[in-house]
Amino acid sequence: MTDRTEARDVPAAPDLGAPEDVAWIARRLEGEGFATWAVGGAIRDALGGYGAGGDWDLTTAARPHDVQRIFRRTVPVGLAHGTVGVLGRDGRMYEVTTFRRDVETDGRHAKVRFSDTVEEDLERRDFTINAVAWHPVTHEVRDPHGGVPDLRDGVLRTVGDPRERFREDRLRILRGLRFAGRFGLTVDPATWEAAREAAPELPHLSAERVREELMKVLREVERPSETLRLYERCGALASLYPELQACVGVDDGGEDVWTHLLRTADALPRERDSLRLVGLLHDVGKPRTRVMDVMPAMVRFPDHAPAGAALARGLMTRLKFSNAERDRALHLIAQHGDLPASDAPGPEVRRWLRRVGREFVRDLLRLEAANARARPRPEEDRLREVKALRDRAEALMRSGDALEIGDLAIGGGDLRALGIPAGPLMGEILRDLLETVTDDPALNTPDALADIVRRRIDAGGDE
User: 169 by DSSP, 3-state: which?
Assistant: First the structure.
């Protein structure tokens, strides 16, 4: 690999659109004798033409106590790592971090010490495109590792020896794959080979860091398939997500299950990263349930939804998602594909709404629409049917029809007044009443339901 660490003569960049307070902070620090530069994703995105508007971070020779002394309004974001949040005049918080250099690494985290030069700070960064500093006042660009040419050429490469960079922190492999997919970069051959060699070590990373990287892919990358295909090619998928690796090459009507999962995730909105995760996992049970019929010749996946929910449970538990995040995803995966016809009888649609839950209906139908769009040839008839079912479901939910026990016109207090004690019998009666009004919503009135309960009592149903 070519040595790219020599000093670079990079012309001053134009104003990169930084907020005015970025220059204000730099002037204040440099007025006290501390060199200060803007670094990070905002510089990369602006110089690479990827747009602006992200967080603007600064790095400085000032130590944390100096920053706290110079600025009146600060937040101790991470003093042990040299980071102080400075509240600007615009009300935004800007992270200001002391120049650092790595002194010890273990593949999971780096131990750092403060440094006095921006060059040492850039030396410890992961990829050349992230190792560029821009001066907010003079607009000078400091690029000792060739990040600006790599941005221009669309190349992702590490700062220095890629094997060493990945040994220092294995998470850099996943970060690099995310950047490559997000910005459409070609991975430098030496960097790619080092990533493939180190991929088997990825399970040693903490579950929280792996989870956050996956969610960043789903949240930040317009087409997460661009990054996730790189996961599969370099071995990261097999190391971290064997449930998904098992989907590669499993035929699913003209393409493999893996491709369909990627298409489904792509078809869901980027701002709904948790739903994109469901799209990525919704058919993960298919490899385990695949059945090949002989007459007629066809592939089926019986009960793949509950099988997929079970596999997704293991994956999300392993990555330490919260119980609420996990349970919501598993419910959607387990329920997908089992929809009533949009013109089905009312009781059938209401029972489906009860089973799914009104708070899940919209996301489930978004998933079903993405599922239809994700086929090699989008299933237009299926899309129209999903839209019609959505309209029908919305109308039923607006109508006030009872979909859960809390929607009944009588409750526990009313049943006690009728002589039904609290306990299992009361719960059984309420469930039976819900079944009754599911068939005939007109019966959901206090008088009608009380009459049904009285008839049950008279018939000896309380014994």
Answer: strand
Q: What is the pLDDT of residues 243-280, one digit of tens each?
A: 999 999 998 878 999 999 999 999 999 999 999 999 99
Q: Using alpha carbons, select from 341, 345, 343 the residue that is nearest to residue 441.
A: 345
Cβ neighbours of residue 72 closer than 8 Å, sequence gap 6 or more? none
Token pair recorded at residue 457: 């009592």
Q: Provide DSSP, 330-387.
A: HHHHHHTT----TTS-HHHHHHHHHHH-HHHHHHHHHHHHHHHHTSSS--HHHHHHHH
238: region left, alpha or beta (phi > 0 left; psi from -120 to 50 alpha): alpha
Residue of 237, 226, 300 lying closest to 265 (CA atoms): 226
Q: Output DSSP code: residue 129.
A: G
**Rounded average pLDDT over 325-339:** 96
The residue count of the chain comes to 463
Question: Per the omega criterion (within 30 degrees of 0), is the bond before 424 cis?
Answer: no
- Token pair for 251: 């035929």
Three-state SS for 159? coil
Q: How far apart are CA 42 and CA 49, in angstroms?
A: 11
pLDDT in tens, 118-167: 999 999 999 999 999 999 999 999 999 999 999 999 999 999 999 999 99
Q: Is residue 408 within 8 Å of 444, Cβ to Cβ?
A: yes
- CA distances, 419 to each of 230, 423, 434, 448, 453 (Å): 66, 12, 19, 17, 10
- Summarised one tens digit per residue, pLDDT across range 15-62 is 888 999 999 999 999 999 999 999 999 999 999 988 766 789 999 999
- Domains of the chain, residue spans: 20-152, 168-315, 405-458
Rg (CA), the chain: 29
Q: Is 309 helix (H, G, I), strand (E, B) or coil?
A: helix
**Does 357 score more than 60 pLDDT?**
yes
Decide: 125 and 131 in contact? Cβ < 8 Å: yes
Could you give the CA distance from residue 299 to residue 246 in angstroms, rounded to a whole number?
17
CATH number of 20-152: 3.30.460.10
Report the distance separating Cα 216 and Cα 208, nearest Å: 12
The residues pairing with 74 across neighbouring beta strands, listed in sequence order, are 86
Query: Element (H or E) spanning 85, and its range?
Result: strand 83-87
Of 311, 320, 346, the C-alpha closest to 437 is 346
Q: Which residues touch 82 (CB under 8 Å, ≥6 apart)?
A: 63, 64, 97, 98, 100, 112, 114
What pLDDT does 106 receive?
52
Mean pLDDT of 293-306: 81
- Specify whether the CB–CB gap between 145 and 128 falls below 8 A: yes
- Measured between alpha carbons, how far is 158 from 164 in angstroms, rounded to an integer? 9
